[in-house]
Amino acid sequence: MHTPLLLHAERLTKRYGRRTALTDCDLQIPRGHIVGLVGPNGAGKSTLLQLACGLIRPTSGMLSVLGSTPAADAAHLARVGFVAQDTPVYASLSVADHLRMGSWLNPSWDPALATRRIGEVGLDLAQKAGRLSGGQRAQLAMTIAAAKRPELLIFDEPAAALDPLARRGFLHSLVEFVGELGASAVLSSHLLSDVEQVCDHLVVLCGGRVQLAGPVPDLLASHHRIADHPGATAGAEVVWAEHGRAVVRGDASVRASHAEPVTLEEVVLAHMSRAASTGARPNASAAVAR
């Protein structure tokens, strides 16, 4: 039996008046991954995640999440947990109030998981959310999203404002929740170090278009750094070149004769640089699922 994709988009477009946030995006992401969604500010990352949560609707094209239209009904809403930017919580409510609210709103709420995780991260149930630190608010928001036991957790720049220690704790909890729930996750971040730590699948979005997508090991294996001189790039697609070096996506002969390994950061920056220089035209092979 065919398992529905985690996320499937075809020619997905979203416009806000005259401004286009996403243009003809094709994307296929299989289940069972922690997906890193990266790109510069204004790339369309938040728009894509809001579409995936059903908070907004496409202007045109198709998007399915877990095999259905996002937020198609209450049952589908229960399958997706969302933590928005700045990990919003209600300042006047206590931690315990947030857990009670989660229980009222979510039929699949797991009170044991919520209470245990709140204890593990050292939150006081009586504490008002408005008095929590940024890292504590992030942990509370993530616990609420996870305690509904979703199949997909979506995080929109949740750790951007956190200090390094709080960010490390947040990412550790994210991985633990995904493992405990048997869920998938999408993490939008402009911090490539965060993506490298926890993500095994990558989507690069620039100028509202998908530039690159696939499992991280496959992307690293197919990209290489070589000296940029005549003949060196034969048989390879040059993604970006500067200062006498090039990042290429090449065949076996290029790898054997010239290539050096690349980092994930080099791959991402090469595709982002090319997108910036070419008006963010999409890569024809960017959205192939594996």
Reconstruct the topology from this structure.
Blueprint (H helix, E strand, L loop, with lengths): L6 E10 L2 E11 L4 E5 L6 H9 L6 E6 L8 H4 L2 E4 L11 H11 L5 H10 L13 H14 L4 E5 L7 H18 L2 E5 L3 H7 L2 E6 L2 E7 H7 E5 L8 E7 L2 E6 L1 H6 L6 H15 L12
Parallel strand pairs: 3-7, 3-8, 5-6, 6-7
Antiparallel strand pairs: 1-2, 1-4, 8-9, 10-12, 11-12
Helix pairs in contact: 3-5, 4-5, 5-6
Notable traits:
290 residues; alpha/beta; 35% helix; single chain; Rossmann fold; 6-stranded mixed sheet; 3-stranded antiparallel sheet; globular; 2 domains; 10 helices
Characterise this structure:
With about 290 residues, the chain is of the alpha/beta class. The chain has helices at about 45-55, 75, 95-105, 110-120, 135-145, 165-180, 190-200, 215-220, 250-255, 265-280; strands spanning about 5-15, 20-30, 35-40, 60-65, 80-85, 150-155, 185-190, 200-205, 210-215, 225, 235-240, 245-250. The model has no long low-confidence stretch (mean pLDDT about 90). The chain has ten helices and twelve strands. The chain is about 35% helix and about 25% strand. The chain has two domains: about 5-200, P-loop containing nucleotide triphosphate hydrolases (Rossmann fold, 3-Layer(aba) Sandwich), CATH 3.40.50.300; about 215-280, no CATH class.
